[in-house]
């Protein structure tokens, strides 16, 4: 009983740490341009597929696979920003337009993958040794999150990110080019999503072109749970969501898996809409 | 050094600046005084490239900067301390100052500049690791000015540095502004506190509803009857 409980905890933290990686992308982009980037889940899926293709063509060297996957996803993330969001931002269009654009990009990306690779599930190669798989996934996630934390707190561009998220015009008076900082944010967020994609493929040993939809939505729930816009919030939110989901499946019923995640969303929105780490914001008039 | 020729700026359909002509010479302290909504902040934001004029020209150091982006204007040494200070409340004092020198790549220069700022404002040194949002109003104004100094301004624009501060703090801030000017930085200061601004300035402009209505030596403006009635409380 005790060892099974421990195993469930480990499962929960494994899934949760991957949720956290994806949730960070949602929360960072929201923090800086107040956009829920619904295409983010599909960047995650693309990361998984790039990992799959690389491991088929160039062999199952995990470091190489994840490296190429994150380089390409960060590039794709910036491209999406430049094509789908920046033109709208420059025209001062309503926030809802960018949101619709994000949903469009999401549909476009998943169908592009269907077009290239077909709609079927693909089995994923074994990239990490099975016996320590979960520990490795957790360690890699922590490493990536520490890297992010370091960038945001100790580099100039990280400080600039926080400045832009507070006030764009004041940031411009410092000589900061907001477009550059926004692109950088998309690059980092998509990089984390790409890594998460490879980790999920490695963990579940299967991927499909629409996996980004549900996983992305759940990561979004994790971001809201932690307080959208808050980086530590996304990390904690992902872990809580992963743990609740796994423990709920283990001790209640597996048919409640998705209900648990969205049940959490509903409860959070009723009880504490700003999330665990979120701050009350005043709308400027 | 700075020349505005017939600058018009609009917010949507509303014309906030209706042809501003203004010039600032090297080494001067120049002030623009005027009431609420006269166009003072709009003038500074147009100079800084935050707003784009619909007509007119802005020249700085003999370059036409009218259509330049804000970050390029900062790189030229034209630095603004915005209205209400706009210290980043979510960043520490140290991080706020680092951002002031955002375009300076040389780390040694940045740390020297920071020592210089801490010399002028020892209070900021004490508060180095505190978040900007936890400072008092006067300390935030010091931080906003210190942050601008980090960028090594050739011309420093100050938007209502006296706003919301106690009189004794205002005097201290204006004293420091004069000191900064003495080290060779040209200053353009926008104020509702006309008396304070005119008492340290060489020249002054009076702005009303988007137009310059008066321009003279600061000493003459201080004794000008209309100015006294409208801005100096009789």
Please tag this protein with its features.
heterodimer, A: 285 residues, mainly alpha, two-stranded antiparallel ribbon, 11 helices, 2 strands, 78% helix, B: 234 residues, Rossmann fold, six-stranded mixed sheet, 26% strand
Task: Summarize the topology.
The complex is a heterodimer of chains A (285) and B (234).
Chain A: H1 2-33, H2 40-58, H3 62-90, H4 95-117, E1 122-123, H5 133-154, H6 156-166, H7 168-173, H8 178-204, E2 206-207, H9 211-226, H10 231-251, H11 257-271
Chain B: E1 2-11, E2 14-24, E3 29-33, H1 40-47, E4 55-60, E5 63-64, H2 70-75, E6 78-81, H3 93-100, H4 107-120, H5 122-126, H6 137-150, E7 155-159, H7 167-182, E8 186-191, H8 194-200, E9 203-208, E10 211-217, H9 218-223, H10 225-231
Parallel strand pairs in B: 3-8, 3-9, 6-7, 7-8
Antiparallel strand pairs in B: 1-2, 1-4, 4-5, 9-10
Helix pairs in contact in B: 3-6, 4-6
Strand order of the largest sheet of chain A: 1-2
Summarize the biggest pleated sheet of chain A: 2 strands, antiparallel
Quaternary structure classification: heterodimer
Total of DSSP H or I helical runs spanning 4+ residues of chain A: 11
The CATH superfamily label of chain B reads P-loop containing nucleotide triphosphate hydrolases
Instruction: Measure the end-to-end span of chain B.
Output: 34 Å
Report the sheet-strand fraction of chain B: 25-35%
Q: What share of the residues of chain A lie within helices? A: over 70%
Mean model confidence by pLDDT of chain A = 93
């Amino acid at each position: 009983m005790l060892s099974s409980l421990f195993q469930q905890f480990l499962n929960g933290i494994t899934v949760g740490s991957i949720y956290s990686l994806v949730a960070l992308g949602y929360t960072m982009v929201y923090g800086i341009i107040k956009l829920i980037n619904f295409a983010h889940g599909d960047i995650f899926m693309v990361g998984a597929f790039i990992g799959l293709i690389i491991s088929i063509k160039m062999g199952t060297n995990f470091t190489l696979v994840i490296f190429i996957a994150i380089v390409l996803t960060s590039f794709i993330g910036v491209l999406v920003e430049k094509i789908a969001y920046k033109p709208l931002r420059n025209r001062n269009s309503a926030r809802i337009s960018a949101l619709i654009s994000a949903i469009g990009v999401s549909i476009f990306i998943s169908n592009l993958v269907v077009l290239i690779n077909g709609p079927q599930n693909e089995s994923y190669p074994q990239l990490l040794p099975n016996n320590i798989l979960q520990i490795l996934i957790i360690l890699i996630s922590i490493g990536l999150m520490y890297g992010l934390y370091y960038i945001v707190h100790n580099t100039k561009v990280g400080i600039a990110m926080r400045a832009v998220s507070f006030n764009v015009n004041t940031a411009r008076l410092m000589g900061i080019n907001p477009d550059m900082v926004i692109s950088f944010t998309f690059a980092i967020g998509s990089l984390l999503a790409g890594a998460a994609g490879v980790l999920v493929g490695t963990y579940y040993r299967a991927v499909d072109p629409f996996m980004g939809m549900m996983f992305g939505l759940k990561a979004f729930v994790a971001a809201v749970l932690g307080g959208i816009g808050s980086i530590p919030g996304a990390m904690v939110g992902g872990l809580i969501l992963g743990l609740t989901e796994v423990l709920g499946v283990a001790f209640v019923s597996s048919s409640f898996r998705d209900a648990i995640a969205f049940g959490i969303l509903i409860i959070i929105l009723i009880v504490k809409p700003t999330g665990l780490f979120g701050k009350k914001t005043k709308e400027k008039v | 050094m700075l020349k505005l020729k017939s600058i018009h700026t609009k917010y949507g359909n509303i014309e906030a600046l209706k042809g501003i002509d203004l010039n600032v010479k090297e080494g001067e302290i120049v002030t623009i005084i005027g009431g609420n909504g006269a166009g003072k902040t709009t003038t500074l934001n147009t100079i800084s490239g935050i707003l784009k004029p619909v007509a007119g020209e802005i020249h700085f150091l003999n370059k036409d900067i009218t259509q330049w982006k804000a970050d390029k204007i900062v790189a030229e040494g034209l630095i603004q301390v915005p209205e209400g200070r706009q210290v980043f409340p979510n960043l520490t004092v140290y991080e706020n100052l680092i951002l002031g020198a955002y375009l300076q790549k040389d780390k040694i220069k940045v740390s020297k500049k920071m020592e210089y700022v801490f010399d002028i404002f020892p209070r900021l040194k004490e508060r180095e690791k505190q978040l900007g949002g936890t400072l008092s109003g006067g300390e935030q104004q010091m931080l906003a000015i210190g942050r601008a100094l980090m960028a090594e301004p050739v011309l420093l624009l100050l938007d209502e540095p006296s706003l919301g501060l106690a009189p004794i703090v205002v005097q201290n801030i204006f004293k420091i502004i004069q000191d900064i000017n003495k080290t060779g930085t040209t200053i353009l200061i926008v104020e509702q506190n006309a008396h304070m601004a005119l008492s340290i300035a060489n020249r002054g402009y009076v702005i009303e509803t988007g137009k310059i209505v008066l321009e003279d030596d600061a000493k003459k403006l201080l004794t000008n009857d209309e100015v006294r009635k409208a801005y100096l409380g009789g």
